[in-house]
Write a structure and sequence with these properties.
- It is a single chain.
- The protein is elongated.
- Helix 4 runs antiparallel to helix 6, helix 6 packs antiparallel against helix 7 and helix 6 crosses helix 8.
- A four-stranded mixed beta sheet has the order 1-2-6-5. Strands 3-4 form a two-stranded antiparallel sheet. A two-stranded antiparallel sheet has the order 7-8.
- The protein folds into two domains: 128 residues, Methyltransferase, Cobalt-precorrin-4 Transmethylase, Domain 2, CATH 3.30.950; 116 residues.
- 63% of the residues lie in helices and 12% in strands.
- By secondary structure, it is α+β, with helices and mostly antiparallel strands.
- The two termini are 56 Å apart.
Length: 336
């Protein structure tokens, strides 16, 4: 946005062609620009513009329009206006533009609708622009602005927490898939080894049958062969048992890691507790019911009674801390 014009901008000409109203106000000099005007525009839905160096004037048809008389546009003048905006609570962001008409400079002060409303003066005065004038904020309007700001900040934090949780769930899902794939590979290797042993046993058994039917006089040799086969089978089964034992250890480790203490459930409890504590600290009961509905949709695998218990425990913890703080403050006041 340009900060200085050698002549009047299109926006300023348009504002001068209209009377003072909801979004524009004319002031003769800097002294007439009060903090109240900046606060009223910042607290409104649309914001507004203050033209300094302009006075009301009536045309021949009687309609009020802005008439340029000029004003001080030095750096000290601009700094004076900025200081008024920055001394508001919270500070107000404005834009100041210098414009000229036939040697008569004017200041155009743009005051956008603030995302941090409501604003007030250092003396605690709240006001808003309404029907082309500045008036005091009513209690219900002030409460609405506070709740609107808190809701937006909560939504930002909540979205960040959900994004962080989704990232962690994705990481854990990847680790679980890797563990399951490794377990399946071990089972396939065990199956191949088992089939090899069974085929070998079957082949040797058929060979023994052939030898037995061919000659009964070789019983001694046959028994010796059987003993050797038995020893070989025993060794192979011992090896198979070791493989099965190793696989069982891997499966037990995997189950211990993902089943004994469910990380998704634990992390879900931490996230729900953190967000519930934040709501309790803001002391905003209207958000509690909506929050319970949100977490119920986020964690459909966790029963609603458990979710409510987590929320209640988090809020009770915040209440306990606040009660302890109040007792400590009262004790300090009594000692003093």
């Amino acid at each position: 946005m340009r900060r200085e014009y050698q002549r009047l901008s299109r926006r300023t000409r348009l504002l001068l062609s209209q009377p003072e109203g909801q979004e524009v106000e004319f002031k003769r000099n800097l002294g007439a620009v009060k903090q109240k005007i900046l606060i009223a525009f910042a607290n409104s839905l649309t914001g507004g513009t203050v033209l300094v160096g302009v006075e009301d004037g009536a045309r021949a048809d009687g309609v009020q329009r802005g008439h340029i008389i000029g004003c001080d546009v030095s750096d000290s003048a601009r700094l004076q206006i900025q200081n008024k905006a920055l001394s508001c609570i919270p500070p107000i962001t404005i834009q100041i533009v210098t414009e000229n008409l036939a040697g008569h400079p004017v200041l155009r002060i743009e005051v956008p609708s603030s995302p941090n409303k409501p604003h007030c003066s250092q003396s605690g005065d709240y006001c808003i622009r309404s029907d082309g004038r500045n008036r005091a904020l009513q209690p219900d309007e002030m409460l609405h602005l506070f709740m609107e700001r808190e809701s937006e900040q909560f939504l930002i934090r909540f979205k960040h927490a959900v994004s962080k949780l989704e990232s962690q769930v994705t990481t854990m899902d990847s680790e679980l898939r890797h563990g399951v794939d490794q377990m399946l590979d071990d089972m396939h290797r065990l199956d191949r080894d088992t089939m090899f042993i069974l085929n070998e046993l079957y082949g040797r058994s058929m060979a023994m049958r052939a030898e037995t039917s061919a000659s009964q006089q070789h019983d001694h040799d046959l028994n010796d062969k059987l003993r050797r086969i038995k020893r070989s089978v025993d060794r192979k089964y011992k090896d198979l048992a070791l493989r099965v034992g190793d696989l069982n250890l891997k499966i037990d480790a995997l189950l211990t890691r993902f089943s004994v203490e469910d990380p998704l459930r634990r992390r879900a409890q931490e996230q729900v507790t953190e967000m519930a504590a934040l709501i309790r600290e803001r002391d905003n009961p209207a958000l509690v019911a909506d929050f319970l509905d949100v977490v119920a949709r986020m964690y459909p695998d966790i029963d609603e009674a458990t979710l409510r218990a987590w929320v209640r425990q988090a809020m009770e913890a915040v209440d306990a801390v606040q009660a302890s703080t109040r007792r400590a403050q009262r004790s300090s006041q009594d000692d003093s």
